[in-house]
Write a structure and sequence with these properties.
352 residues, GGDEF_dom, alpha+beta, rod-shaped, Rev_trsase/Diguanyl_cyclase, membrane, transmembrane, Four Helix Bundle (Hemerythrin (Met), subunit A), Alpha-Beta Plaits, five-stranded mixed β-sheet
Length: 352
């Protein structure tokens, strides 16, 4: 018992550990999924900066001022560096990305100065300088985008590993749950078996005296019922002449014949040896008598045996104790036995 208690405790601790691990893994998966969404937006806006800056240069070279677009790009570059609720951008936790972004920001300032210089002095030299800086800036932007994409791929790889870990933990929890369920079922079956052994008569399958003493007060409370005391006739004679195995078979046949006459809600108790009690809820004495006489006929037809009985009808307001009711039904059974003494004086097995 102590060993089982320790085993159950260890299993419980293991399940708690794995459930905790699963919760942590799921939380990490949630945050990583959220981060992937954020990284995707960073990659998207870093690409916008790369493309928009080139379009702005082309327009400036065409003598079209694009100050609004330059301001827009300033805002995006700032948002990429520090995060932004306006653009729904996160700050990537990547040193290489932040370093490259700082380089991109410096080059952007240099490129803007070249734009303003070209506006004032649109010479071929300034145009060439602007084109050179534009190409350099494009390469830096391209590198920034690549670093962000690699960062996102790293998260995706980590998320895939996390999914595998979650699958393993879930699988282990399922196995542990199945094992725990199996143990619960086994314990439940053992409990039913112990309960059956404790309250059922092993020979006939009816309830035993212990069950009667413990549960009859509850069963009979607040209802009208007939209580029948039954004594199987000539059991001692059968045991002496044919052996106890034949006697047991005789008891089983008699009880089966009696059981067939009653409802499934009626309860038969073996009080010991050849004595039985039947509880007939909401059944009047006249009906109980008819059923028992039918049972006696069936017993006689199948076994050439018989039984005696005494019936007491109990009203729900009856103040007598169970012991008094049992005593009265027992007395009536003996009175019945005297009257029918000649019936069932001996028992022969069916077919002999």
């Amino acid at each position: 018992m102590k060993r089982k208690f320790i085993t159950d405790g260890i299993e419980t601790i293991i399940m708690i550990v794995f459930i905790t691990a699963l919760v942590c893994l799921l939380c990490n998966a949630f945050f990583m999924t959220h981060e992937i969404t954020g990284v995707s937006r960073v990659v998207n806006y870093a690409g916008i900066v790369r493309g928009s800056s080139q379009r702005a240069i082309k327009q400036e070279l065409s003598q079209k001022k694009v100050d609004d677009q330059l301001t827009y790009l300033d805002g995006i570059i700032d948002a990429l560096q520090h995060s932004s609720s306006r653009y729904k951008l996160i700050k990537l936790d990547s040193a290489s990305f932040q370093s490259e972004l700082m380089e991109q920001k410096r080059e952007w300032q240099t490129l803007k100065k070249a734009i303003y210089t070209y506006r004032k002095t649109p010479t071929g030299k300034n145009e060439q300088l602007l084109l050179t800086l534009s190409n350099n800036y494009y390469e830096i932007c391209d590198k920034t985008v690549s670093i962000a994409e690699c960062y996102g791929e790293g998260i995706v790889t980590g998320l895939k590993k996390l999914e595998v870990a979650i699958g393993i933990v879930v699988g282990i929890l399922i196995l542990l749950s199945l094992e725990r369920s199996r143990a619960i079922i086994v314990n439940y079956r053992n409990m039913l078996r112990l309960n059956r052994d404790a309250y059922d008569d092993p020979l006939t399958g009816v309830k035993n005296k212990r069950y009667f003493e413990e549960y009859f007060p509850v069963m009979s409370e607040g209802c009208n019922y007939s209580l029948v005391f039954i004594d199987i006739d000539n059991l001692k004679e059968v045991n002496d002449k044919q052996g106890h195995e034949a006697g047991d078979h005789y008891i089983i046949e008699v009880i089966e014949a009696i059981r067939e006459q009653f409802r499934t809600t009626d309860v038969i108790f073996r009080m010991g040896g050849d004595e039985f009690v039947v509880f007939l809820k909401e059944c009047r004495e006249s009906i109980a008598t008819r059923l028992l006489e039918q049972a006696r006929e069936a017993v006689h037809d199948h076994t050439s045996g018989s039984f005696s009985y005494g019936i007491v009808y109990v009203h729900k307001e009856d103040s007598r104790s169970i012991r008094e009711i049992l005593k009265e039904s027992d007395q009536r059974m003996y009175e019945y036995k005297k009257v029918h003494k000649k019936e069932g004086s001996h028992h022969n097995k069916k077919g002999t």
